[in-house]
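Hello,

Our lab assistant flagged a job as stuck in the queue for most of the afternoon. It eventually completed. Since we weren't sure the result was trustworthy after the delay, we are filing this so someone can double-check. Below is the sequence as submitted and the structure that was eventually returned. Let us know if re-running is recommended.
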Amino acid sequence: MEAKSKVFLTDTHAHLASQGFSEDLFDVVQRAGEKGVQRIVTISCDAEDSKLNLEIAREYPTVLPTVGIHPLYIEGISGDSWVEELRGLASLPQVVAIGEIGLDYFHPPRDGSSEKEWRRKQRDVFEHLLQLALDLQLPAVIHQRQSANDVADVLAGFPGVKAVLHCFSGTCEEAARAIEAGHFLSFTGILTFNNASGLRKTAASIPLDRVMVETDCPFLAPAPFRGKRCEPYMVEFTAKALGELHGLSLEEISAVTSRTAGEFFGREVPS
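-- returned structure --
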């Protein structure tokens, strides 16, 4: 009898600390494992998220936590104490990256400031967190919504930081710039949407050793689950879509993207 092909998937961007998973996290992680998702990177948006993700990772061996502050969660930041708090959290051995960090020009200011001041503050926090990544020799998970050029410019000032542009939805040119700078790209369920032909063209142009897959759950459920809560097990559908673009089976694309994720986050792919 022919042995069944092994699927090893890595969801490189999930928000397991989200309230959307507070009632059934055990089931969510179990479902993921049953579908071949044997590693989940759970992403932090602020210090409280970071602490909760560390607790989640202690409970679930397949979960890898990050520490960071999302650009839309910077309202209460002042002084320098917040950096030292995150440094203490990010120094723990189970932490695999600083993230998610970056710039968001889509949403309006949340603190009543001007657009210019809001963006300046975002950039200041972003630069502090990239320096933290550099200090701790950790990779960075980057948020860039309608801010690709500025994100690229900031990253250029920290050439020692290895970054992944999460939920990538940019052009071939933006992808090429990121790859040339030594960074990585990660795709969500958007890749499966009917109106995402341009993004699929971009994804098809990217070297497979620079690409990863993610859910960004509980958001962005792929087809055929649009409108429902997204879960880590659904990363299979994004992986299939990416594999089809490169002429690879699910088993092949899962192996390639998981190997890339393992190298990026400093965690070996389990045998």
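-- support follow-up --
The delay was a queue issue, not a problem with the job. The result is valid. The first helix runs from residue 25 to 34. Residues 17 and 80 are 25 Å apart (CA to CA).
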